[in-house]
Amino acid sequence: MGKEQEMDIKQMKKFPIVAVLLPGAFLAILNQTLLAPAIPVFMDSFNITENIAQWVMTIFMLVNGIMIPITAFLIETFTTRRLFLFAMSLFALGTAVCAISLNFPMLMTGRVIQAAGAGIMMPLMMTVFMLIFPIEKRGTAMGTVGLVIGFAPAIGPTLSGWLLEHFQWQSLFYVVFPLTIIDIIIAYFVMKNVTKRTYPKVDILSIILSTLGFGGLLYGFSSAGNLGWSNPVVLLSIVIGIATLTIFIKRQFKLEQPILEFRVFQNRIFTLMTIIGMVAFLGLISAETILPIYMQTMAGYSPLETGLVLLPGALLMGFMSPINGRIFDRYGARVLVITGLSLLTVTSFLYTQLTASTSLTYLTVVFAIRMFGISMVMMPSTTAGLNQLPNRLIAHGTAMNNTMRQVSASIGTGILVTIMTSTALSTGTTAEPSELIRGVNVTFYVSTALTIFALGLALLVRRTKPDKGIPAVQGKG
């Protein structure tokens, strides 16, 4: 990035840019959780099974995971303003298609279009934030991003439940659509160009390999819970994913202008912080997946009670993110990450003692402390890692970071659900709750081991406080 552009960014009014990026990202993340309570409604409306209806959630994550790896290429090809307007317009179009859907295939088409726009949003926002804020204020800025990530999943199921109780399922999209249009209109007037265009060559083969690689892995592992690990579709998807991903990675090292720059992993702190962030994100997603299964099918709690257990923790995570950002700017990531992973380890262990009579209070308090710990790890680890990269590699760093999180959540949750079912003393309709719960407890023992591993990595990182003199990773941009 040239000195002239750096001067322009310093003089740029940041508030209008933040004011359009945050709502866009909020709506994108909200849509990942908004439809979860609507799955039974879709089953009745379209006369489909639960496994088929679940695809309204799975397809969103799958397309997200496919889009994220190519966002670095898109950011370097298009202006910030044009790419943001394109992403949000795509998201709005998908929302409109969903709202007027006459059948399930049409609804799925809308979700694919939605997810394509949403997949661009998060890496774009993180890249812009890293560029418009000086290094000593990035913690606070990324803490604000954490607030969005925390609040959106917390509000999603609650808002969805209320809308479904009073209106038709189409209302889920009618609420989101006008907010998206308003954000697009405001962005048209206030959004500025921040990222530098390097016009990388379009390598069609890399895009195809990336799509097959990440798509195959995400589909295979996310489908394993429903179809089983021995299912030919699951096995074939994973094999194709691993094979094409291997070819994709090797190809990126040979290209002068790679679609996704794997050389960012040459920086030790970026690599360690990315792994730590993956473990934290897996801790977030796995608990939000496994706890509802335990509460509703093994402990006899209602969906509403499940939502109430998860809500305080999600709100606490959102509330704490900006505060943790300020702490990061002052003291660096190390103290936050070590404290957060310690809390995550303790709460994972506390969930290894679940029974059929575990109280709602216990579940709620432990989950809240868990989310408090995750808030200390997620954004601080991301920011500390990205701070090690030069500006020209930040788009690749954010794309890589988001991709690795998606992959870890998909693969990790698939494996943990398998551990839960395979280690239960008994399964099926005749199984006692205590026999099923053993599998849940074993799963959280595995989670405890993972967080101890991440804590060990965090102790290896000696310097994470933002420092303008940090040596940056070298490599072709």
TrEMBL record:
InterPro entries the record matches: EmrB-like, MFS, MFS_dom, MFS_trans_sf
Residues in Major facilitator superfamily (MFS) profile domain copies: 17-466
Membrane topology: Multi-pass membrane protein
Keywords associated with the record: Cell membrane, Membrane, Transmembrane, Transmembrane helix, Transport
Transmembrane segments: 54-76, 83-106, 112-133, 140-159, 171-190, 202-221, 227-249, 269-294, 306-323, 335-354, 360-386, 407-430, 442-461
Signal peptide: none
One Gene Ontology cellular component annotation held by this UniProt entry: plasma membrane
Superkingdom assignment: Bacteria
Compartment list: Cell membrane
Molecular function (Gene Ontology), one example: transmembrane transporter activity
PROSITE patterns linked to this entry: MFS (PS50850)
Protein name according to UniProt: Drug resistance transporter, EmrB/QacA subfamily
